Amino acid sequence: MHVSLLGVSQNLSSQLEFLHLQILSIVTASQLRRIFERRTNFDLRRLLDGTETFLHSMLDRLEFDLAMATSSLHCLRLDPMVRKRVADTLVPTSKVKDILYVILIARGRVVTLIRPKKHSIHPADIHILMNTVHNPSIFNSPAAASWIPICLPKFNPNGFVNAYISFLQRDNPEEPSSAPSPSSPQSSSSASVTDSDSGTALVCISGGADFDTIRSWCDGVTQKLTNEGTLKLLSDCVRSGQAEYTVSELGIPGLRHFVYKSRAQVQVTFPTFEDPYENLTDRRRIITFYQVLHDAIHAKSGQSETLKLQYIRTEKESVMGWITQPFEMYIALSPRLPKSAVVGAANAVSRWVKKEEGRLFLKDAPVF
C-alpha cells in the first residue's frame, strides 16, 4: 500500500483520481461496470495482475509531478523553430487513416503534439500516456516498438485505442551531459522520476488496428527527422542543457523556485530544483506549500470563495500563490524579503515567462 507523504487532503483526492484513471486505461469503465454488476465483491487485483508496475510508477510520479498537480501539460523548453520543424514532420498524410494523436516526448516532457481539428486531448490522458510510455516494461523492451491497447479515459472511458510507441533515442546514463537528468533526486526539474524518462519517444495513437500502416508511417517520419538533422538538433538541445533553466537565469533577488501555469495554454513551466530544495525532504516541503496555496486559490480548502492571492511565510521561506485571468503562479523566495518584494518578484517572473513563452510553451501546433 502506498501512503501519501504530502499530508494534503485535496492532493490525496487528486492522487486517487489519477490512480482510478490509470486503472481505467487498463480496464475500461464499461468493463468494470459489467464486472461489478455481476459480482459486487469481485477482487480487482485478479484483473490487474501483472500491471502493478504502472500503478506504482504513477504513484511515484504523483508525489513530485507539478504538471499533474496543476492539471497541466509540461513541454520541453525548445527553440520554437526546432519545435516547428519537428511538428511539421509529424503531420500525418491523408493516406494514413485512424490516427488520433501524434506526440514526441523527450526527457519526460512533450516536444510537440499533433491532433485532428475536432479532437483536443485532456492533460490527464497525456499523463496516462507518459506514465505508460516510460514504464520499464515498455522502455526496456527489446522490441523496436510497442503496440498496446490503451483506454484514454477523458477521451472515451468505455473503449480502447492503440498506441504505437517507438524510442528514437535511449539516452545512455554513462554518457556525459551538461543537462541534469530530470529523474535524478538531485535535480528533478520535470515531473519525471525514472531513468527511462531521459529517452526520446514517438507515440502514435490510432483508433484503428492497422499496425503495419502505422509502423510504416512512423518509420518514415523517424527517417525524415534523422535525415534532415532535426532529431540531432533536438538531441543537441537536450544534451547541452538548453532544455533546462534555473532561477539564476531570471536574475530576481531572493527567488528560489516557482511554478507558472498558462491558463490559456493549460501548460506549466518551472525551473530545476536547486539549493535549498536539492534534497527530497525540502522538496516535499515546498511542493506541499504549493499544494496548500493551490487549494486555497481554487476554493478547495473549505472557504466559501476563491482567494486571488495567498501568502505564507515561515522561518525557511516565503511562498505565494497568485491567480489572474492569464496565469496562476506559485513562488518561493527568501523569508527575509518583505511581502511587497515578493509581489514584485512574482511580477518579474510573469514578465520573464511572457518574454520566453515561445520556448517554454507549445503554441500553434499543427492540426490535421
Radius of gyration, in angstroms, nearest whole number:
21 Å
Structural class: alpha+beta
Secondary-structure element pattern, one letter each: HHHHHEHEEHHEEEHHEEHEEEH
Lateral arrangement of strands in the main beta sheet: 1-8-7-11-10-9
Number-wise, the strands total: 11
Estimate nothing, just give the exact number of structural domains: 2
Highest-level CATH class of the largest domain: Alpha Beta
CATH architecture of the largest domain: 2-Layer Sandwich
Low-confidence stretches: 1-7, 173-196
Distance between the termini: 44 Å
CATH superfamily name of the largest domain?
Answer: Dynein light chain 2a, cytoplasmic
Percentage beta strand = 15-25%
Helix content: 25-40%
Shape descriptor reads globular
Provide the CATH topology of the largest domain. Beta-Lactamase
- Helical stretch count? 12
Family: Belongs to the MON1/SAND family.
Subcellular location: Endosome, Multivesicular body membrane; Prevacuolar compartment membrane; Vacuole membrane
InterPro entries: FUZ/MON1/HPS1_longin_1, FUZ/MON1/HPS1_longin_2, FUZ/MON1/HPS1_longin_3, Mon1
Keywords: Autophagy, Endosome, Membrane, Protein transport, Transport, Vacuole
